[in-house]
Write a structure and sequence with these properties.
By secondary structure, the chain is an alpha/beta fold. It is built from 15 helices and 12 strands.
């Protein structure tokens, strides 16, 4: 079971502060962070360019850039409650999570780091779970734990909490929608303490003090699927959050396992539909183990590290180049490669214009190298 990253990195203290400042600055998400670091050579160099890029992109006023003192305070506050901010490739950062294109540049990790590096299977489902669903969850989670897998889930009511409780002894990881000090639902604070006390772990990309909002739960769900080799959906109604996790799993190239249910139970409508759409019908842990075994031995190739700072190529866009790119953009997503070809500009110039628009709050990045105007 080789999940060791093939190109592990280690940030210096100064780099970790710069990375945190960059990801906590306005209009910088994980995809933008990666593009900025790859383009400018370091987070420090990208931070220096943010105000000018936003101004050229049409921002009415400069976006907030996280101050060094704020970043230092966040790192120190996290350390006081046992939270380490880790970059992809550092020990304790789930190796497969580092492979997704919007992996958190810094992940707040708490608990026993070893469990974060085990092969993981996600288990999610209805908050309003049936008795049969809860019993099945306990059985399959326990069997997968005994087979050597850590179970990753979202600490939610219903199926999630049953999966965590069944694997306290074998290893479980809770993915939080809020900060490490803002547990949701509040009644699961004791469950999280039990997870951490029994050698499990918890992860979050949110800063301390962040109270989860509705839009944070889909972001949390992509981390559940990103950590895992595959995701088991036990019960899910139509338009359930668990179906969002299944969609992320498909986009990330993870296996999707669906537990069939009665057509008379609305809690099984989503899982039965997943099976119709090609998800693997799952009735026991062996179904999961047999499906993921072929990919478990593949080394994990990490996509990003921070090289020594350098000056980018001459990428200052001319006015006509900027105008051509903006004219080609609209609310419908377009691939960046297509944009470069249609605009007839160097790739570095196109990337710079996209940075300008995004930092001005005018551009949205989607998965697969696709962008659109807001």
């Amino acid at each position: 079971m080789d999940t060791t990253p093939s190109a592990a990195i280690r940030l210096s203290d100064a780099q970790r502060i710069d990375w945190l400042r960059l990801i906590r600055s306005d209009n910088v998400g994980p995809r933008t962070f990666r593009s900025l670091v790859n383009h400018f050579g370091s987070a420090q160099a990208a931070l220096q360019r943010l105000p000018d890029l936003a101004r050229r992109g049409g921002a009415a006023k400069p976006g907030r850039i996280c101050a060094q003192a704020d970043a230092e305070r966040e790192i120190a506050a996290g350390a006081r409650i046992g939270v380490a901010l880790l970059a992809p490739g550092e020990y304790g950062y789930p190796p497969r999570l580092a492979l997704i294109d919007d992996a958190p540049p810094l992940l707040g990790v708490r608990g026993v780091l070893n469990v974060q590096t085990q092969p993981m299977i996600g288990i999610v489902g209805s908050r309003n779970a049936s008795g049969a669903g809860l019993k099945f969850t306990q059985t399959i989670a326990r069997d997968l734990g005994n087979a050597g897998f850590a179970i990753v889930s979202g600490l939610a009511r219903g199926i999630d909490q049953a999966a965590h409780r069944a694997t306290l002894q074998t290893g479980t990881v809770a993915v939080l929608a809020g900060g490490h000090d803002r547990i949701y639902p509040p009644e699961h604070e004791s469950l999280l303490e039990a997870i951490l006390g029994e050698g499990g772990g918890a992860i979050s990309e949110m800063p301390l003090g962040h109270v989860p909002r509705a839009r944070d739960f889909p972001r949390r769900n992509r981390l559940i699927s990103g950590c895992a080799l595959g995701v088991v959906i036990v019960e899910a109604a139509h338009r359930s959050g668990s179906l969002i996790t299944a969609r992320f799993a498909n986009e990330q190239g993870r296996e999707v396992f669906a537990v069939p249910g009665s057509p008379l139970d609305p809690r099984a409508a989503g899982t039965n539909d997943l099976i119709k759409q090609g998800a693997m019908l799952t009735t026991c842990a062996a179904d999961v183990v047999d499906a993921v075994q072929p990919v478990m031995g593949r080394p994990v190739e990490l996509p990003m590290s921070e090289p020594d700072a350098h000056s980018p190529d001459d990428d200052e866009p001319h006015a006509d180049e900027r105008a051509r790119i903006v004219r080609l953009l609209g609310p419908s997503p377009v691939g960046i490669d297509d944009l470069i070809r249609l605009a007839g500009v160097p790739a570095a110039v196109a990337r710079t214009v996209l940075f300008e628009l995004e930092l001005a709050g005018r551009l949205e990045r989607h998965g697969g190298g696709v962008v659109s105007l807001l």
